[in-house]
Amino acid sequence: MTHPMPVPFGAAPRFAPIRQTRVLPGFPLALGYTLVYLSLMVLIPLSAVFIKSASLSWPEFWAIVSNPRVVATYRLSFGAALLAAAINAVFGLMLAWALVRYEFPGKKLIDALVDLPFALPTAVAGIALTALYAGNGWIGSLLEPLGIKVAFTPLGVLVALVFIGLPFVVRTVQPILEDLETELEEAAASLGASRRQTFTRVLLPVLLPALLTGFALAFARAVGEYGSVIFIAGNIPMVSEITPLIIITKLEQYDYVGATAVAVVMLIFSFIMLLAINLLQAWSAKRTGRNR
Amino acid sequence: MAVAAALNERPDARRYEANAATRESPWIRRLILGTALIFFALFLLMPLIAVFVEALRKGWFTYITALADPDALAAVRLTLLIAAIAVPLNLVFGVAAAWSIAKFEFRGKRFLTTLIDLPFSVSPVIAGLIFVLLFGAHGWFGAWLFERDIKIIFAVPELVLATVFVTFPFVARELIPLMEAQGREEEEAAVVLGANGFQILWRVTLPNIKWGLLYGVILCNARAMGEFGAVSVVSGHIRGLTNTLPLHVEILYNEYQFAAAFAVASLLALLALVTLGLKSLVEWKAAQHAATDA
């Protein structure tokens, strides 16, 4: 992408350069509408969080966000999200591999159902997982005799986060895997590499950026997840309470400032993740020669 | 993204399995496939089946009664209304954003694309919170709205705003890569032939992007109808008035009316299945469309 002339972002379109390439009509209208709608619906509302929290002094802000009960929720939300994303990276890669490399009955159906967590409302996922993993559920009743309680414990949070994160990994790795030239592996094999060496030395380096992107997407989504978690978590303070729930609890007590302070912490994390994901995608595009 | 990706034909897996260099030993193949399928069944298939089994646990009569309940019907109406407002708003935005980003060069383009994706990385709870901060009783515009007796918080406008926020990027992020891949030659040819802006959009661009557009709308609609966190914060949970279907599920569930909760949930699960079916159909159509064009 080349920029013939530096123009600040958001400048009025009439100052815009490279007039000669603009044969098509509608640029000022389309960009103007995009910027206005984006500002009204997303940017201005989001800025409300930061402006509201600015009414707090730094010690007040710190006292809210470092309260032990709030810190316990970070530990659970971030810890479980990280673990869930890691589980998804391993099993999501296997699922993507199976969908691209193997023929098996029902493959088309399974491929379509991988997107279920995107399409199924989170509240429905939440009560369904709770029904499955509760002590009297299909899976819970098998685990309970082994002394493993899933529903209403932090483990339940993990299960819900694995559910919602799975498609992110599969859908970022799958297209890269489909695009891989078989020549790479043929060359590796002809040079005497074992299948394991081909995977770790040839395939994994190409897949790694996409795998990390999927991991980061699943992680970012899981940290903010609410609907699928609250039913299965049990929501016991200091034990199985997630950060988004703390925000809701504070709102219900009309503690708007407290809710906003915790929201600021989560938003800053989201922005960092967004940046990281963009960098990962750029890395992935560079390594595979594929545009996003 | 998915429709743009579908334009590349999918290689047949048999190609890999027939090639000694790209196939695993039978037991590794069995291990990977088995693990993947067990994981799929545990985390995706069983929750889906559980919804329908739990919904019908107390028989068809309870199922039908739960769905015919006036509060449930009010929730259906409200959910349809919200989607009917939010989806077209984001559809128009998506076309405008994709037109400016994919067909023109300007500085800050990548940054703008990132900003459009922003709502996806914000927790739904925060999406609800920001509108409470703006329009709630103690919010910026709260007092002003209260004086004029305009109800936004705990009412339909707020539910729509929160839904628009969480479904904001769907159509745009689908169209941007698709329109970038298509380039601008066809539109430029239309300009040379004397077409005006509206004619170009209607006769050239929209027919070219129709599958991508439909794909984005399907996903946007599914999220709009199923959104829970954001809507839960702003709704106030007033039965029959500000209760969407997902919120109705929560209320029934918290009242230990499990069969009724799962009955309503099964409606949303059916919606999800229809969404996935349409999505696969659109991907297939788009691939076919691309094949006949080539």
Characteristics:
heterodimer; A: 292 residues; MetI-like fold; 13 helices; disordered N terminus; B: mainly alpha; 15 helices; 0% strand; Sulfate transport system permease protein CysW (chain B); cell inner membrane (chain B)
Verbal overview:
The complex is a heterodimer of chains A (292) and B (294). By secondary structure, chain A is mainly α. Chain A is 72% helix and 0% strand. Chain A contains 13 helices and no strands. The longest helix of chain A is centred in the first third of the chain and has 34 residues, at 68-101. Chain B is mainly alpha-helical. Chain B has helices at 2-6, 13-17, 26-55, 59-68, 70-103, 109-117, 124-135, 142-147, 156-166, 170-182, 185-192, 197-226, 229-235, 245-254, 258-293. The model of chain B has no long low-confidence stretch (mean pLDDT 88). The interface between A and B is large, with 111 and 119 residues.
